[in-house]
Amino acid sequence: MIKKGMRRQIVLHYILVVFVALLLVETIFLLSIRTYYYNSIYSKITTHISVAETLVKYEFSEDRSQAQLEKLLKLFNVEFTELEVLTLKGDIITSSTGFQPDRTITTSDVPEAVGGNIGRWVGRQAGTNENVMAVSKMVQITAHDTYVLRYLTSMEGVNSNLLNLTLLSIGIGVAVLIIVLLLSFGLANSIVRPLNNITAVSAQMAKGKFTTRIKGDYRYEIGALASTLNYMADEIVRSNQIKDDFISSISHELRTPLTSIKGWSETLVSGGYDPEETKLGVGIISRESDRLIGLVEEILDFSKLQQNEMKLSMGQVDIKVLLQETLLNIWAKAEKKRIHLLLECEETIFIKGDANRLKQVFLNLVDNAVKFSPEDSSIVLSAERLSGTEMTVTVRDSGIGISEAHLSRVRDRFFQVDALNGGTGLGLAISQQIVELHSGKLEMDSELGKGTQVTVILPLDDSQQGNARVSNPPIT
């Protein structure tokens, strides 16, 4: 007995389908063979009657003698059949066997023959209980003599042959089912064994052993499943590594400002410092506190985005004004590295969005550009209509650039191209999700050592769609 499981289901369903198919085929085949044999006998008798009927007018006279009945039996007789001559009421007059029972034939073939058709009946003969076929036909011998000729032929031989054929068909069917059973076991094992292997490896993964992999060259859907689970394990390992790197990085990021705050707090508490030193210490504490707040807010923003809890305050946004505010906020940091910030923007570009969140995106992009650009370089922030329904904001720098290997991962959460520059590795991931919440796209193009270009594509405000472009000179 096969234990419960997919193997048994496959075998049972496979056997059931083949069994039903074989049953239908063999039933149709055997019925067709039986019909063929029965119709062949019936056709032989009816053909002989038709031929004999053409000779009646040449062979018989108006004489109703016994010799005439004997001539009738001889003319219409068919080999291996018994011929009975009946009255129209079904009474037997004579037969080819010479046996003349005093009885009336009541089977359905006689009334059919009297009605003008060729009657046919198959059943058990009274007295002998033998399976026979009766074929009856009304024949007019002379103008005054009309008889019913009834042929009886045994069907025992035919039925015996049909039985043998049925047994042979059943034997063939059983052999086919055995072969199908063996094949279905092979088919079930080819599916179940890989699944058992995949299940065992998945159980190991569920216990945290993500270094285990599904081995084996599986094909089709099972191969795709194995590849997907292996890919999932790789991603979990990578995510765990990123998480560990993030924890290490954020710990360092938090420790630095906390160390400064604690150090200056203790120093100020101890007293004895002049106002200038006190002012310097308070300023450092304030800046480091702001830095801590920024780190915490970045983590909270990312958490909200991951849980789809970030709410946008939508309104009409003037892109030029927003970009000008962005440059003013980042200007002091750029000035320290003598980096020139250039703004190229058309007039009257409006979109529908959350101004604060979009400003957060552009601040992050420009801040990254400043962070990774050399001194005495330039960063261009440009905006223009892309079509009647979209506009773009581009941040272009000539900094260190990003390698092709890192470019595909730079927007992943917690990923940092250069961990020495600090940060949580969440900025670009948050920016991309904010852009997507505005039904936009964030695209990056970079070449190592030559710079990076980040493009944000956003839909225009409905009232601005289709407006003509207005060219404006660059703003520095």
UniProtKB/TrEMBL annotation:
Catalysed reactions, semicolon-separated: ATP + protein L-histidine = ADP + protein N-phospho-L-histidine
Domain (HAMP) ranges: 189-241
Broad class of enzyme this protein falls into: transferase
Membrane topology according to the record: Multi-pass membrane protein
Principal location listed in the UniProt entry: membrane
Compartments reported by the entry: Cell membrane
PROSITE patterns registered for this protein in UniProt: HAMP (PS50885), HIS_KIN (PS50109)
Name of the protein described by the UniProt record: histidine kinase
